[in-house]
Amino acid sequence: MKLYTYFRSSAAYRVRIALNLKGLQYDAIPVHLLRGGGEQLQEQYRSINPSGLVPAFQDDYITLTQSMAILEYLEDAYPQTPIMPKDATERAHVRELAQIIACDIHPVNNLRVLRYLVQELGISEEKKNEWYRHWLVGGLEVLEKHLARDPAAGPLCHGRTPTIADCCLVPQVFNAQRHGIDVSVYPNIARINAQCVEIPAFIAAHPSNQPDAE
Ligand SMILES: N[C@@H](CCC(=O)N[C@@H](CS)C(=O)NCC(=O)O)C(=O)O
């Protein structure tokens, strides 16, 4: 198995957590998002992932992009240590939580979007940071409301064992903290994150523990 990854990429971080939870060994192939204008945009990497984003994942004869598709593939192909509940309604619910992050928060704050705002639309660094904060804080507020009203939310997003929702939450909180956003104002998010970051699979997936960490 190969994972094309960047230590600080939150989408790759999701996949690293899932691989670790399932005890799967993989080769980490670093793709530097900033060096030389971005290795993710070079032809060599685009032949693997045409969208020029990390992660990309290879297993036997399959090449997959999109972190959420990779997480679901891992769950289907390697059912040991499940990261999804079995029940259909619970599964849908876990996907709902994960997608608040992966579909509603993350894409509008991606590097290429922020670059476009500054380089093509001429937005100042200050306005760019305001944009980032606006979508992140708004999304965390929504996620917090879901977790607060959900009887299935336990020590983790759904009960006691990590799911794909936790695989998404922890990297997003890492990003928020890196940008100086205080997540303690979201008690459920803060509590779940605090539990997760003690789990060895999450620790090993942390950006600072990656071979390409700077
Ligand atoms: N929907 C994709 C998003 C992947 C993505 O946005 N990756 C970011 C890093 S977290 C990236 O490669 N950014 C590089 C860029 O924007 O040029 C997924 O979930 O895999």
TrEMBL record:
Residues 1-82 form the GST N-terminal domain. PROSITE patterns: GST_CTER, GST_NTER. It comes from the Bacteria. Keywords: Isomerase. The keyword Isomerase applies. Residues 87-214 form the GST C-terminal domain. Its EC number is 5.2.1.2. One of its GO terms (molecular function) is maleylacetoacetate isomerase activity. Belongs to the GST superfamily. Zeta family. This is Maleylacetoacetate isomerase. The lineage of its organism: Bacteria, Pseudomonadati, Pseudomonadota, Betaproteobacteria, Burkholderiales. The gene is maiA.
